[in-house]
Specification:
seven-stranded parallel β-sheet; 11 helices; alpha/beta; Rossmann fold; single chain; two-stranded parallel sheet
Length: about 325
């Protein structure tokens, strides 16, 4: 993380962080505090205490119900919007689509509109690499390419991006849209927990032949980039891919997780086509596809614009995640 004296302004800004009790939001808050930046955590509801008595969280309620943002962001200089719907199972129903769009698009645009009314200087929006849609094995995702999002989550994030760009186009607000790939780190949720559960039991895993490459983003690297955007004196506006320095394949991921867990993965080679058939029979095709598909992310634009280099390697970040999983109750279940 950036040291506290990296911020050169005479007065530290006040930064509102939505989704502050989520995995990314809570760690962004901690990174900002470590950089000496004042935060205002914005949460859906009080569930447990995240911060010390010097920081007061603001409750805005369910994002699907049209939260009132005006008081929540009054007096803040910058906003980091991490809140959204991510892990809920999608269905083909209109209700499922509507819920994703209410939370990921509508709540985001209402927050941005209020931010402009209150002269907020910087607005950081956490979108997703999913907006690009499926990519061929040798194709890197770059910000200028045509997006082909699939599913309610990706489409709602992309719709939010388009709406934000329209809202910001005639104002002075600095809008940064971040498109991170899968996030890893200590106690991270999602597919890495499933892999850790498999590693825990020392069973042979049929992933040795899967060499599709993908970029991930370690939570420390992601937070480091966010702090860079908040503290940089240049205009941060733009769409930014952000990823670890190096790409990995599934055996790399398993070996790095295993190193942190004190495990040695037993990888056997099963052709991808056969693995997909087995996953379909077990009702796990989508989960396997997420782990085995290629997703190369070119983040050179952010590196050139801000001089930013991810401080932690992907393998070190995955090893740290493995260390946390070794003692995590979520892996025991």
């Amino acid at each position: 993380m950036l040291p506290k004296d990296m911020y050169s302004h005479s007065k530290s800004p006040l930064v509102a962080v939505t989704g502050a009790n989520g995995y990314i939001g809570s760690r962004v808050c901690s990174a900002l505090q470590s950089a000496g930046i004042a935060i205002r955590p914005i949460v859906r509801s009080y569930g447990f205490k995240l911060f010390d008595n010097t920081v007061e969280s603001v409750v805005v309620g369910d994002l699907a119900s049209g939260p009132m943002w005006n008081e929540a962001i009054r007096g803040v200089d910058h906003i980091i919007h991490t809140a959204g719907m991510v892990h809920k199972v999608e269905t083909k129903s209109e209700e499922s689509a509507a819920e994703y769009f209410r939370i990921n698009r509508d709540a985001t645009l209402s927050l941005a509109s209020e931010a402009i009314k209150q002269d907020v200087k910087k607005f950081l929006f956490f979108s997703s690499i999913a907006v690009y849609g499926p990519l061929k094995n040798d194709v890197q995702a770059v910000e200028s390419m045509h997006c082909k999002p699939i599913g309610h989550y990706a489409n709602s994030k992309f719709a939010a991006e388009r709406g934000l760009l329209d809202i910001a186009s005639e104002t002075s607000i600095e809008l940064a849209i971040l498109r991170p790939p899968m996030v890893h780190g200590p106690d991270c949720p999602g597919n890495l927990v499933r892999l850790a559960k498999l590693l825990k039991y020392d069973v042979p895993l049929p992933f040795g032949a899967l060499k599709s490459r993908r970029n991930l983003i370690g939570i420390d690297n992601l937070c480091d980039f966010v702090v860079k955007l908040i503290t940089d004196e240049r205009n941060i506006s733009g769409i930014w891919n952000v990823a670890d320095r190096e790409d990995v394949d599934l055996p790399d991921i398993l070996n790095s997780l295993g190193l942190g867990m004190g495990k040695h993965p037993k990888l056997i080679s099963v052709p991808a086509a056969s693995l997909n058939v087995l996953a379909t029979l077990l009702g796990q095709r989508k989960a396997v596809e997420k782990l085995t598909s290629s997703m190369l992310v070119n983040s050179s634009a952010a590196q050139k614009r801000f001089g930013w280099v991810a401080p932690v390697t992907a393998r070190d970040g995955l090893r740290k995640a493995g260390q946390s999983f070794a003692v995590s109750a979520s892996v025991e279940r």
